[in-house]
Specification:
The complex is a heterodimer of chains A (131) and B (912).
Chain A lengths: L5 E6 L3 H10 L8 E6 L7 H9 L4 E6 L10 H19 L6 E5 L5 H18 L4
Parallel strand pairs in A: 1-2, 1-3, 3-4
Helix pairs in contact in A: 1-4, 2-3
Chain B lengths: L1 E2 L2 E9 L3 H12 L4 E4 L14 E2 L4 E2 H14 L3 E4 L2 E9 L2 E8 L14 H5 L3 E3 L8 E3 L1 E2 L11 E2 L6 H5 L6 H9 L3 H9 L5 H7 L3 H5 L11 H15 L15 E5 L3 H12 L3 E6 L7 H4 L8 H12 L4 E4 L6 H7 L2 E4 L5 E2 L12 E3 H9 L10 E5 L3 H12 L4 E5 L11 H10 L2 E3 L2 E9 L2 E15 L5 E5 L5 E4 L2 E4 L3 E2 L31 E3 L2 H4 L4 H21 L43 H4 L12 H8 L13 H5 L12 E12 L3 E3 L16 E3 H8 L19 E8 L15 H15 L4 E6 L9 H10 L3 E4 L2 E6 L5 E6 L7 E6 L1 E6 L1 E3 L37 E3 L9 H26 L1
Parallel strand pairs in B: 2-3, 2-29, 3-6, 13-14, 13-16, 14-15, 16-28, 18-26, 19-20, 19-26, 20-21, 29-40, 31-38, 32-33, 32-38, 33-34
Antiparallel strand pairs in B: 1-2, 4-5, 7-8, 8-29, 9-10, 11-12, 17-27, 22-23, 23-24, 23-25, 30-39, 35-36, 36-37
Helix pairs in contact in B: 1-2, 1-25, 5-6, 5-9, 5-20, 6-9, 7-9, 9-20, 10-12, 10-18, 14-15, 15-16, 22-23, 23-24
The chains are: A alpha/beta (131), B alpha/beta (912).
Chain lengths: 131, 912
């Protein structure tokens, strides 16, 4: 059976190579993880997250660059605001804010990514299906 | 910004390693316009390939990637990768740079970095970003963190086999595909250049084999036999062609005169374009010389029939038994004509008795035998006159058709016979006798029936206009050679006489055409094959048919012919770049002799028209294909282009040059590693388990080529590892008297990381003295000792190979007994030193930049003006000026950036 569906927003410069590396090194993580690359995590709109969760994803994960971002020195703060706003909206919609997670994934953080995915997947499984 | 039409920058930085990136970012942040030029397809230099940074053990790639992304996106930095500075000229207080942008053969804008091309490519090459520990493909993304993350296709030109083929059949391509087990893809690739693969796999003279680089080693690849393997396999599983022609058919009609290889080829490619093609064939069946000239023991007729289906399945109609007498008439009902009537007219000797019964020309004899219409020879004596391939074919055919004895009369010596040597050999083996220096004077008959040839001895006379010595008869040497049948095979002339009044024809009967487009003097009428060249090779006729089809299509679609649009091949690679041939060639190939081709035994073969050669087995074919040296790297097999989802592969891309005006220049060209094979006593390159420290760093990096730290010979995790320090540094015997500064600490780092990766392993470091001079370095060294790493003082004398690929390290125990000790290890790491990278040193303009006695770029004064060189406006950053570790390099790059900034501002002030 497929595990919980997780949508990952990843950055083309930093976290993408890290996630690629997980695959290239034949590490195992749930097959129900789908990745959308974008240049910078601060560009994510909270509405996208709500949209994804309403359209069948069980969780959304933001693989951010943190201080390594090539575009904004304050990328962490900006992305933090996105997450804050999204979780507010999730509460309003009656969605568990725990279904949105963010972590910094570096270009070789393959193991860290895999461990995040496994943990998040377990959390979502426990949290059960969406209301 | 532009200046005199070319882009202008405040500073150009050459080399995008950590020093170059750091300088670019700092200067960009200061507000200067920066051009960053990198010769590799990705930025990042060597640092991105390292495991960790000492002594903090920070992740090297985690520090590099953000910087790499930043230089690619910085608004003030323009990045050129896969580009080389070719010329630096001083001009107007600044510099003009000429930069060659090497062709990626991948469109950077459309490549998404998905890596599908890599999976499809059948050409493996050593992965230089893994320092040859692993292989990657001819088309590849340099490494997962590459910036830009775009594929690059490595091409060193066109492989000699492809370049030599008149039709440009991609031998290297289908060989690579056979090697990869992609037999059907191999067949389809062949169809892109020649539609008669069956015929060519049997009867082509394979000029490709003559150019094969393996020729200089153990003998060329049996390329034709490989083709036969792939064709046989394909035809067995596809009795009918897959192709049905394009859906969109065109209105225009094209007539093809002659159904030989030239006509068939042209018809095939024209039909593929959607044209309505009709072939007119004067004889009873299609195939021309292939059917009526080549004996079935060289070309089985079922192979020919199957090849013909490739053409007819596209809707080409072949009207046999219809002889074309007038092109003008034909032109009335067709939009274009391709004349490929061949060369069928026999040259007659013009001597007494040639009209007698029992004297036939080869082009009468061969077709009738093949069709079973010639009376059996029943033990008779046959004399063949001539020395070309047709003469040999006639002789061998006569033998199989019941002749008792066959003699070939040739008026010169064997070495001068135009027939291929191996054909002559085959005839001799089968029992044909060759009478050299003998020419017929007249034919002797009983009534009107020939009974003998009066032959005269010949000898070399004075040289003719071609420089060849013309044979002259020896007076009084006449003798009679008995014969029941005489076959004349002294030459063929083009069958163009009916058209001589309509189009321009040369005195020798060949049609005059524009050699680039194959168009004749009558617009819309093209010609090719033997009618144009005189008797030639099948592959030559195929080539001309292919070319004519291209220009006929162009003429009909665009209304004109444009020779510039015809495909163009890159030249073959320089010899030195081919593995195994040059001094610095890629790799050293194993010596494997060519596969032995089996033939049916002589005594059996002369009894039938059965094919002489036996096919290769699958194992033989794959083994033979694996001998390919991949001369030009890319095999042009087209697989990457077929699978690329965004159509980014572009073989027609070529290098381009662009000039830039810059106010200042920073060299951050980095270092290269000492080649440890120069220290022969350490066995690098000879013993697989002796590796360099750079290779060890790759094994320890998170992006390592193997799942863990393993040794090359057997993939086992090593248990007892030795580091040999100062390999190539502080060593006058290899002219490197200086200390490379980084080897002690990176070896300590690697030793510590090894204990992390292989907790049970023993690690020994052989050193001269440990140089732990920086902040935290001594503590780092002490920490390593505390972890149980052994440090042995003494220079290693030599490394020998022991059992199981283990290594014996021989050294003098200076701290203990003073004796010579032999210690066994299962992996030896040579901590190689660093040398200046001189790849740019010879470039005009860069040559004037002063270097020190070790050839690093000289800083005028490291203390007063860090990075300033002898030339005003030219700076050096990082290891280009001397050995440095990463923290020092970053520091130096920062200092140099400040110097450059100050220079640019001062310059502005002075100028305003």
């Amino acid at each position: 059976m497929r595990g919980p569906r997780i949508l990952v927003f990843s950055t083309i410069n930093i976290s993408d190579p890290g996630i690629d590396l997980a695959g290239a090194s034949h590490m195992e993580y749930p097959a129900s993880v789908e990745v959308i690359p974008l240049p910078c995590s601060s560009g994510i709109r909270p509405s996208w997250i709500i949209h994804a969760l309403k359209r069948g994803f069980d969780g959304v994960f933001i693989a951010a660059d943190g201080g390594d971002c090539a575009y904004h020195p304050d990328c962490t703060t900006l992305t933090g605001k996105v997450v804050e706003r999204a979780q507010e909206m999730m509460r309003e919609e009656g969605i568990d804010p725990g279904r949105l997670k963010m972590a910094a994934i570096c270009s070789v953080c393959a193991e860290a990514f895999v461990s995040h995915m496994k943990k998040f997947s377990r959390y979502l499984e426990k949290a059960g299906g969406r209301e | 910004m532009k200046r005199n039409g070319s882009p202008a920058y405040d500073v150009a930085i050459v080399g995008a390693g950590i020093a170059g990136m750091e300088s670019a970012l700092t200067l960009g942040d200061m507000g200067f316009r920066v051009l960053l030029v990198e010769k590799e397809p990705s930025v990042g230099g060597k640092m991105i390939l390292l495991s960790k940074v000492f002594p903090t053990l920070d992740c090297a790639s985690c520090i590099s990637t953000p910087k790499m992304a930043a230089v690619a996106h910085h608004p003030m930095v323009d990045l050129l990768t896969w580009s080389e500075v070719e010329d630096v000229r001083k001009e107007d207080g600044g510099f003009v740079l000429r930069v060659r942008k090497k062709s990626r053969f991948v469109d950077e804008k459309s490549c998404t970095g998905c890596g599908d091309c890599e999976k499809a490519c059948p050409v493996p090459i050593p992965d230089r970003f893994n320092f040859d520990l692993a292989a990657h493909r001819a088309v590849h993304i340099p490494f997962p963190q590459a910036v830009p993350k775009k594929a690059v296709l490595i091409r060193e030109g066109t492989s000699p086999c492809i370049f030599e083929c008149p039709a440009g059949v991609k031998a290297h391509g289908y060989i690579a595909l056979i090697r990869a087990g992609k037999y059907e893809e191999a067949f389809r690739l062949h169809m892109e250049d020649a539609p008669l693969p069956g015929v060519l796999s049997r009867a082509c003279y394979a000029p490709c084999e003559g150019e094969c680089s393996r020729k200089e080693l153990e003998g060329p690849l049996r390329i034709r036999m490989l083709k036969r393997f792939m064709v046989d396999r394909y035809y067995e599983s596809h009795p009918e062609p897959e192709e049905e022609g394009p859906e969109k058919r065109r209105e225009e009609r094209v007539a093809v005169v002659g159904s030989g290889p030239a006509g068939l080829t042209a018809a095939y490619y024209l039909a593929r374009e959607g044209f309505q093609v009709t072939i007119f064939e004067a004889r009873e069946k299609a195939g021309g010389m292939l059917r009526y000239g080549i004996p079935p023991y060289r070309l089985p007729r079922e192979v020919l029939e199957r090849d013909l289906k490739n053409i007819t399945s596209l809707g080409v109609s072949i009207r046999t038994g219809e002889r074309v007498e007038s092109l003008t008439q034909l032109k009335e009902s067709f939009d274009a004509v391709f004349l490929a009537a061949g060369a069928w007219e026999p040259v007659r000797p013009g001597i007494e008795g040639e009209g007698m019964d029992g004297v036939v020309d080869a082009m009468t004899f061969l077709p009738r035998v093949f069709e079973g219409k010639f009376p059996r020879l029943n033990g008779g004596k046959v004399v063949v006159i001539g020395g070309g391939n047709v003469a040999i074919d006639s002789a061998r055919t006569a033998l199989r058709y019941g002749a008792g004895k066959v003699e070939i009369l040739y008026r010169r010596g064997r070495e001068e016979m135009p027939a291929h040597d191996w054909e002559v050999d085959a005839a001799l083996v089968e029992g044909v006798s060759l009478v050299e220096w003998r020419a017929p004077a007249r034919f002797i008959g009983k009534g009107n029936r020939v009974v003998g040839v009066e032959a005269v001895k010949m000898e070399p006379g004075p040289p003719d206009e071609s420089g060849r010595r013309r044979p002259v008869p020896v007076p009084g040497s006449e003798e009679v050679i008995p014969a029941d049948l005489v076959i004349l095979a002294i030459g063929l002339k083009p069958s163009t006489s009916p058209f001589a009044g309509e189009i321009e024809v040369n005195p020798d009967g060949t049609v005059r055409v524009d050699p680039t487009t194959m168009e004749t003097s009558m617009p819309g009428v093209f010609a090719g094959g033997d009618a144009v060249t005189g008797p030639s090779m099948i592959i030559q006729a195929v080539a001309q048919g292919r070319k004519a089809a291209f220009f006929i299509a162009q003429r009909l679609i665009e209304g004109k012919v444009d020779p510039a649009k015809w495909r163009e091949f890159l030249p073959p690679p320089e010899r030195g770049k081919i593995p195994g041939l040059g001094e610095n060639g890629r790799g050293r190939p194993d010596r494997v002799p060519p596969v032995a081709v089996r033939e049916i035994p002589t005594e059996k073969r002369v009894l039938s028209m059965d094919e002489v050669e036996e096919p290769l087995t699958e194992d033989e074919a794959v083994g033979e294909a694996s001998r390919c040296l991949d001369c030009a790297v890319c095999s042009l097999c087209g697989e990457c282009s077929r699978v690329c989802p965004s159509g980014a592969i572009d073989y027609s891309m070529r290098d381009s040059a662009e000039t830039y005006h810059v106010k200042s220049l920073v060299l951050s060209t980095g270092f290269r590693l000492f080649d440890p094979s120069l220290k022969e006593q350490y066995g690098f390159g000879k013993y697989p388990n002796v590796i360099t420290s750079m290779q060890m760093d790759r094994l320890l990096a998170p992006t390592r080529p193997s799942p863990g730290v393993v040794r090359p010979s057997d993939g086992k995790a090593p248990e007892n590892i030795a580091f040999i320090l100062c390999a190539g540094s502080r060593d006058r015997t290899v002219s490197n008297p200086f200390c490379s500064r980084v080897c002690c600490m990176y070896s300590v780092k690697q030793a510590q990381l090894l204990l992390g990766a292989l907790p049970l392993a023993e690690v020994t470091v052989y050193y001269m003295d440990i140089r732990a001079f920086g902040k935290g370095y001594e503590e780092f060294f002490q920490q390593a000792k505390g972890m149980g790493i052994s440090f042995v003082r003494g220079r290693v004398a030599k490394v020998e190979e022991g059992p199981d690929g283990n290594l014996i390290v021989v050294y003098e125990d200076t701290e203990g007994t003073g004796r010579v000790v032999r210690a066994e290890h299962d992996l030896v790491v040579l901590s190689v030193g660093i040398l200046p990278d001189l790849s740019i040193a010879g470039v005009p303009g860069v040559r004037e930049i002063e270097r020190d006695e070790l050839l690093f770029v000289r800083e005028k004064s490291e203390v007063v003006n860090p990075g300033a060189t002898n030339l005003e406006g030219v700076f050096v950053a990082g290891t280009a000026s001397g050995p440095r570790d990463i923290p020092d390099t970053v520091l130096h790059a920062g200092a140099v950036s400040a110097q450059v900034g100050a220079y640019l501002l001062r310059r502005k002030e002075v100028r305003s």
